[in-house]
Amino acid sequence: MGRGIGGVTIKEDGTVEKAWDPFLPRPPSMKDVNASDDRSTSDQVAVFGANTKEGMTLVKMMSEKGLRVIAAVRVLGSNKTKQLLGLPGVTVKQADSNDRASLLTALNGCSRAFAVTSYWEKFESVIEETMATNILDACASVSPPVKNMVLATFEEISNLKKFNRKSQIVPTRDGKIYPDFTGKSKVDAMGKSKGVTVTHMMTSFMDDKDHKKSVILLRGMNKRIVVNSHVNK
């Protein structure tokens, strides 16, 4: 039996669904679903922090690409969480980075994980590092294990302009970017020890249609995305 919170219902497996008004007729059965909508054979990806602005961007993009997505959220009943409900191929589950059992439940059956950490905290913060290591440990512990994890952290830029500060992501003289974040190095080392490939994605924003901003990724001659080593050893 599920429990209701803020207009949503939490099932026994942690799945979050919209609470259905008992006075309304039930929705149509699955017999009307087009066969092309079947995603049972597509990869399943977990996105932690799915109800943040950045997390929602990732979930919507993956949904549009035909992937199955486990949108892991900590806070239920928010408008952002409700926006995730009903997206094609998206299952919303409750998970807290400090609750190991909920992390394992969210990661069950996933081949990859995306984690949006608390970038609003100071870079190299204990809070952000703990979030990342807890999720990473769960990736290695779930059966079968999740072998690939993308750690997405975004620079808090609200105070940069206000106090005339410079970005912490500073390029070298030759134009390359090597942000020296101790916390990221620790997560990278932990990933290697546990057999999980960790990719750190650091940008100041995700795609923002309202302000016509987007992240541009360059492709090399082999058609693969060009990246630089991003954590100093």
From TrEMBL:
InterPro entries: NAD(P)-bd_dom_sf, NmrA-like, NmrA-like_oxidored. Keywords: NADP. One of its GO terms (cellular component) is nucleus. It holds the Pfam family NmrA. Residues 42-166 form the NmrA-like domain. It comes from the Eukaryota. Belongs to the NmrA-type oxidoreductase family. This is NmrA-like domain-containing protein. It comes from Cylindrotheca closterium. The lineage of its organism: Eukaryota, Sar, Stramenopiles, Ochrophyta, Bacillariophyta.
